[in-house]
Amino acid sequence: MNSDELKKRAAARALELVTPGMRLGLGTGSTAKHFVDLLGARVAAGLDVICVSTSQVTEAQARALAIPMSTLDETPELDLTIDGADEVDSQLRLIKGGGAALLREKIVAAASSRMVVIADDSKLVTQLGQFPLPIEVVPFGLEATRRAVIAAITAVGAGGEIVLRRKPDGSVLVTDGGHYIFDAHLGTITRPEALSAALAAIPGVVEHGLFLGLATAAILAGGGGLTILGTLE
Ligand code: 5RP
Questions:
Q1: What is the sign of the dihedral through the CA atoms of 179, 183, 186 and 190?
Q2: Same domain, yes or no: 30 and 73
Q3: What is the pLDDT of residues 171-200, one digit of tens each?
Q4: Is the pLDDT of residue 32 over 90?
Q5: Band of residue 233 on the pLDDT scale cut at 50, 70, 90
Q6: 18 and 98, same structural domain?
Q7: Would you call 218 helix, strand, or coil by DSSP?
Q8: Which of 46, 47, 122, 183 has a Cα at 20 to 30 A from 17?
Q9: Which of 6, 28, 57 is the pocket-test mutation for ligand 1 (most atoms within 8 Å of CB)?
Q10: pTM for the whole thing?
Q11: Which one is catalytic: 16, 74, 87, 105?
């Protein structure tokens, strides 16, 4: 089974958690896209849910499938968010933001009673940090913020190259919120909580891709079947 089929399997298991009347957060990325496709089919068959998306891409996909959409202003409390991840460890700590949606993903996850991660099991790691950590920053003061980010990373005993994210055409990637992203190539993150706090204290940093204490469960699909971390119900 290839990685895309595994992602779909994880998404299908997550769909079983959805019950009528739920307020759902919809994630972003290739795995979340499978979930939204499957949810769209259930909605077409009569399932009643209301959803909030984590990106313009997911919003467009969900609307095209006629999934009822809302906002966090109209629906500020969600029952369940289903989203992908770039890395997950055994304590359900995540790196997210490979798809540049980390800010809305974190806001939606924080507004949700439960956040269930769906992924193929290659995303399960013993230590976070092999995947570059996305750090969303405001364009104003970019170089000053970059230096502050380096200082914060150094202060927690980490280090590595900080790269401004660009699109394939070479232009700087701009997030849905109008911000830029630094990708921090750290290799390993030995103190995620300390790094999270240090980055959050920098004025030019809007948000970062360490999701700590947000995921309540993870559904990881592999060749041998599904692995569940945390509690699904
Ligand atoms: C987007 C994300 C995605 O959830 C993450 O990048 C995983 O994506 P995929 O399911 O395509 O592997 O955080 O910002």
A1: positive
A2: yes
A3: 999 999 999 999 999 999 999 999 999 999
A4: yes
A5: confident
A6: yes
A7: strand
A8: 122
A9: 28
A10: 0.97
A11: 105
Q: Do 137 and 216 lie in a common domain?
A: no
Q: Residues 40-58: pLDDT tens digits? A: 999 999 999 999 999 999 9
DSSP state of 123: G
| Most informative mutation of 3, 9, 36, 86 for ligand 1 (most atoms within 8 A of CB) | 86
Tell me the average pLDDT across 89-117.
Answer: 98
**CA–CA gap between residue 14 and residue 215 (Å, rounded):** 13
143 as an active site residue: the answer is: no
* Ligand 1 nearest atom to the CA of residue 98, by list position: 6
Cα(55) to centroid of ligand 1, in Å? 11
* Number of domains the chain contains: 2
Instruction: Tell me, yes or no, whether 12 lies in a domain.
Output: yes
Half-sphere exposure for 191 (CA within 13 Å, toward CB): 13
The two beta strands, 205-208 and 133-137, are antiparallel
Q: What are the Cα distances from residue 191, in Å, to 70, 81, 111, 212, 232?
A: 37, 26, 25, 11, 27
DSSP per residue over 11-48, as a string?
Answer: HHHHHTT--TT-EEEE--SHHHHHHHHHHHHHHHTT--
Q: Verify that 58 and 88 share a domain, yes or no.
A: yes
The reply to whether 207 falls in a domain is no
The CATH number covering residue 180 comes to 3.30.70.260
Please check whether residues 188 and 218 belong to one and the same domain. no
Find the CATH number of the domain harbouring 53: 3.40.50.1360
> Within this chain, do residues 188 and 78 fall inside the same structural domain, yes or no?
no
Residue 83 lies in a domain: yes
∠ CA 28-209-121, nearest 5°, is 65
